[in-house]
Amino acid sequence: MSRNTELDESRNRNECMNVILMLCSISVFFVVVVSVVRISFPVDLWFWSESTILTNILKLKNGVPVFGPIENVNSFVYSPALEYINYAILHNFDLELSVTANRSLVFCYGIAAACMLSASLQMATPKDMRFQEKMIAFCLIYLAVAQGMMADVLHPDNLALLAIATTFAITLRAMRSGGFVLALGSVVIGACSIWVKQTTGLLGIAAVISLMYSQKFGVFEKAIFCIAGIMSTVFFIYTLLMIPYAKFYLYDLLLSQRMQWEKLYDFRVDLIGSPFWMIVAATGLASFFVLRLEQEWVSTYFVFFFLACAPGISAYLKSMGSINNLVSMQVFFVVAAIPLVVALLRCAARQTSGAVVVAIALLTPLKTIPTEAMYKYASQLESAVSNGGRNRRVLLAHGTVPLIKSGFTNVPLDRANSFLELEVGGHAAEAGTRKRIESGYYDRIVLNNPWFGSEIVDVVRSRYKQVDSIPSVLHRSGFLRGLQGLFFVTTVYDRK
User: Fold this and answer.
1) Is the distance from CB of 258 to CB of 319 less than 8 angstroms?
2) Please, which residues bridge with residue 469 across strands?
3) Secondary element (H or E) of residue 396
4) d(Cα 215, Cα 450) in Å, to the nearest integer?
5) Do 62 and 410 contact (CB within 8 A), yes or no?
6) What does pTM read for this prediction?
7) Less Cβ around it within 10 Å: N or C end of the chain?
8) 485, pLDDT greater than 90
9) How large is the average pLDDT for residues 170-180?
10) For 26-38, what is the mean pLDDT?
11) Whole-angstrom distance, CA of residue 336 vs CA of residue 163
12) How far apart are the C-alpha atoms of 138 and 116, rounded to whole Å?
């Protein structure tokens, strides 16, 4: 091959790389713009977790533990690290109760997770990745992160993904450098991730198992890693469960929910049966057979996939589980596929670029942005709460922002999603909601979703009179479009 031919091929390859990087950048820019618009939406109604997180942050502001008596009906099944971290960061700026500021942090956690995972790819192959390749890898991984329906709303998923990505990257760096302190740090960081999400509880053990494959550490050091992994995992689980009522909400209540094994069919449709994700997974699998990837990277990847990502399947199968619990698996599929994509672009850029462009298009999420009707609904909901009077007791079934904006800074009782979790877990009889309504505890009740059930609604109607209503908002709903569909018909009741 002549030198001119080599130069032409190199020039063509660079041109293709630049075009692909430009398309990746445009897709990421589009996602960021859409996310900024969604983040700025002033009420916590994208998903039910938003009201949950803000209720817990309101507890922290009031000096109340995040888990409380069942009778209060205002505690939830999420590990509380997101609330503690967001509160610690935002409290200094007096923004801890801002839904926009909290969403912004969650959004940043997703970007950080993509950065950590793309950095870990540098250790996958003996040959260094070029700048263009690194940027393409980051963009593809970030698009996969953004595919998650909770990527720009208040939910622990992005923080859990950041915990996985950070532990994964630090473990790989320790295995390559032989740094004992770095390795020990990866074990401890992984172990404390149980505070982020229950499904990441084995992250510290995943780091320990991965370190066992390293040739840079001796038997004595590996024994220390094992002891540290077990002790730190037990320590962080113990400290978490020592919070009053934490064991009930984080484990007892979840375990009392029935596992819906029929959702394995949904799993096949949502993930395994999706043609796009089948191709991504197959490309990732091919990377391990076609390329000469670093053995330590391969072993670490599989350990983390099965111990840190796959446990999400159990959360997906529970009664109230959804597809968001599979997002870490999807992201890891993309991470595995990237080395082969980069290798193909190096040797056959023009022939491969078309498939990469299609993948970019399919990876780019199309999230719903707030409409004028949604803003109007949010304003009417806030008015319905504030018109109840600051010195009166108001029950808002779902949503915390309208309460905060109306000056209600005490921790609200009788959260509808908490009631639903208790009911699904068979503990609704222990909730104090019905007793408070029957006794006329509330001056105003704003029912903006159906999660209390017909029995509670009947009690409300027998003790209270309807004074107003807010029509529902029609929108293009769907989990993958980034909203749960919580803009229900709202009925406002005052005491008779």
Assistant:
1) yes
2) 491
3) strand 394-396
4) 58
5) yes
6) 0.93
7) N
8) no
9) 93
10) 95
11) 18
12) 9
What tokens appear for 417 in the block?
Answer: 């999603």
- What are the tens digits of pLDDT across the range 258-274? 777 666 666 655 555 56
How far apart are the C-alpha atoms of 197 and 78, rounded to whole Å? Answer: 7
Q: Are 192 and 155 in contact (CB under 8 A)?
A: no
Rounded distance between C-alpha atoms, residue 368 and residue 477, angstroms: 8
- Which of 334, 342, 340 lies closest to 359 in space, CA to CA? 334
The CA distance from 358 to 474, in Å, is 31
Task: Provide the residue type at 214 as one letter.
Answer: S
What tokens were used for 214? 């390293």
Contacts of residue 288, defined as CB under 8 A and 6 or more positions apart, other chains included, come to: 298, 336
Distance, in Å, from the CA atom of 382 to the CA atom of 386, rounded to the nearest integer, reads 6
What is the per-residue pLDDT across 287-346, written as a single tens digit (0 to 9) for each? 888 888 888 999 999 999 999 888 888 888 887 778 788 889 889 999 999 998 888 888
User: For residue 253, what are the CA distances in angstroms to 132, 184, 322, 493?
Assistant: 48, 33, 17, 31
pLDDT tens track for 302-313:
999 999 888 888
Give me the numbers of helices (H) and strands (E) for the chain, helices first please.
Answer: 22, 4
Per DSSP, 469 falls in state E
Q: pLDDT-based confidence at 476, cuts 50/70/90?
A: low
Give me the mean pLDDT over the 42-61 stretch. 93
What is the spatial distance between Cα 377 and Cα 261, in angstroms, rounded to a whole number?
A: 37
How is residue 479 annotated by DSSP?
A: G
The single residue listed with the structure tokens 């009740």 is 445
